[in-house]
Specification:
This protein is mainly alpha-helical and about 130 residues long. Among the domains are: about 45 residues; about 35 residues. The chain contains five helices and no strands. Helix 3 packs antiparallel against helix 4. The radius of gyration is 20 Å and the shape is globular. The termini are far apart.
């Protein structure tokens, strides 16, 4: 195939994706994400390994902090917040490679995830306070 034909094919819009019901749409989205992650697994920058390692460590630290005294809980929570912020900021450059529609969609998903995290934290703290 010539370079001109290859360039033409890369500029074409992807095939339209049929609309599905809610449950089928969620299932297919997770399948697509799973295939994409598996395909890209070997393409992780060496600088990303630190942030990938921080995610489970942060989760374990937050679970342990929920059983600690107030000052240690606050310190661990602040460290966890910095770890998550580092994780997001280490990957925010990806947004530059997306078109405007993709970037806007990813931004909305990021904001929804942030709001879900805040809501989860309040629910979790309310459960802990009621015990």
């Amino acid at each position: 195939m010539s370079e001109e034909n290859t360039a033409d094919m890369s500029n074409q819009a992807p095939a339209p994706v049929p609309r599905l019901g809610f449950v089928d749409n969620v299932k297919e989205a997770f399948r697509h994400i799973s295939r994409s992650v598996k395909a890209q697994r070997g393409r992780i920058r060496s600088a990303d390994y630190l942030s990938i390692f921080l995610v489970p460590v942060t989760c374990i630290a937050l679970m342990a902090a929920s059983f600690c005294a107030s000052w240690s809980r606050l310190i661990v929570s602040l460290i966890a917040l910095c770890s998550v912020l580092f994780y997001v900021l280490a990957r925010i450059g990806i947004m530059r490679t997306l078109n405007e529609r993709q970037a806007a969609l990813i931004w909305h998903i990021l904001m929804a995830t942030f709001l879900m995290g805040i809501t989860f934290a309040f629910v979790f703290l309310e459960i802990l306070n009621s015990l």
